[in-house]
Amino acid sequence: MSELLTGSQTPTHRHVQASVGSRGEKAVHLALGCGIELDPWQRSFLVDALAVTDDGAWAAASVGLVVSRQNGKSVALEVMALAGLFLFDEQMVVYTAHKGETVMNAFGRLVKIVQRVPALKRELAPGRKNGITWTNGKEQIELRSGAVLKFRTRTADGGRGLSGDRVILDEAQDLRQDHIAALLPVQLAKQNPQTVYAGSAGDSEADVLGGIVHDAERKVPDLCFLGWSAPDDVDPDDRTWWARVNPGYGTRIPPRNIATLRSRLALEKFLRECMGVGDYPRPDGEDWVIPRATWRAGDDDHSAPVGPVCLAVDAKPDGSKASLALAGYRSDGGIHVEIVQNDPGLGWISARVREVMSRNEVMDGVVWDAKGPLSHLRNDFEGHQVPLLPMTPDDLAMACAHFYEAALLNPADDTEGTESAGVEDLPPGVLTGRRLRHREEPALTSALASVSTRKLLDRWMWRRQGKADVSPVVAATFAVYGLQMHGHSPAPPPPPVSASESRPRGDGAAGPDVRSMGF
């Protein structure tokens, strides 16, 4: 049955501007006249991208398209380039890509089309070159009118000296700021320019494409965006999702080819290359999810728990690194959290957990995501006699809300931040006075600086996908939640004590000395 699936022609993400019509229909008609058979999604993309306002201007000055490879993206871009040259009276159209091979393939295909279609061929500039320039690095198609379609491989200076009405940026996942700095000024003197950013899902260095995706999420004006991407927690073996995010599935892309890539690519790469799950950097100027200053306000080099602690574990999706975290109540009623260990691989986890449990008073068991990156270690945990406290999907979202709100109580005013998203889901009184405190730990700080969120209905969760190791913050979040759900908090909290009294002491008078516990 799954092999009968065909790719969805409807994007998972669509953001368009108000318009009175579109020149996209003319582009589609041009393609038909050139013998180019467009898929429904390609036609829809051209109609959305080439929408116009009542004064004839483009409804969106910027267009974004994110769709996985081999789905026909380049064909849609080539039709757009032809339409700009032959239909829209654009005097200069610039087609660029990251790889020279991509540029030359597009150039070669369009030259063949123009020379094959008499109505287009008649418009070529006369002369020795017949309107076609094959010179390496200066490939172009020129018309009698002087209009020209230039093909350029991107470099830091690849756009300087050009003045274009339309700039098409293929392989936009590889775009960098220096490319944009060279290309976009070419449009400054134009009255109605349009820039098209098109590519497959980007990684943590795809700052330009990431900016387009973030802008689409925020519904910014003057942008048209169509994207095919699965949610972060998608089952990578679910073929209905293979079809949902690959419009060419079953037609341009044989299902078995995706199945082959599933077996050969690392999970992160498969999700990005075949399911459109990007790992984009945080936009410039955007603070951490938990604001940096707020988190650092909770630094306390002498922080320590005074009773039973809760342990939690998590790992990167590819299993390359894992974290063991601990949380416990402090003598002042606040919450202490720390990373016990953050190391490569997974083989050390269960034995290390057992060692920590043998040295300290640990409540109930170890909190973990039973369907997460460590799910296959259940037998290993049980073999080391480690009791497990599995997290349900509701627990995962609730844990993030607990951790976030506890962190926002770090400033002097305990009530600050209680209006933030998610606090309405917390049990009454859970956070009163329960400030989050932590020592300065590079692994946890680095994870917080990198981690982003993903939506889960009306809630949110930490986003595990990406190159960065965010397992420290996920494990810390689980540990804090487990402490609040399974631990016994001070009731009422004891009065605050001085820094010297709360400092861990070797004689145990002020509570267990966590630094000597063998973590």
What's the helix and strand layout?
Elements: E1 13-15, E2 21-22, H1 24-33, H2 40-49, E3 51-52, E4 62-66, H3 73-86, E5 92-97, H4 100-116, H5 118-121, E6 132-133, E7 140-142, E8 148-153, E9 166-169, H6 177-183, E10 194-199, H7 207-217, E11 223-227, H8 239-244, H9 255-264, H10 267-275, H11 292-296, E12 309-315, E13 321-329, E14 335-344, H12 349-359, E15 362-368, H13 378-383, E16 388-390, H14 393-408, E17 436-438, H15 442-450, E18 453-456, E19 459-462, H16 471-486, H17 499-502
Parallel strand pairs: 4-10, 4-11, 5-8, 5-9, 9-10, 12-15, 14-17, 15-16
Antiparallel strand pairs: 1-11, 2-3, 6-7, 7-8, 12-13, 13-14, 18-19
Helix pairs in contact: 1-2, 1-3, 2-3, 14-16, 15-16
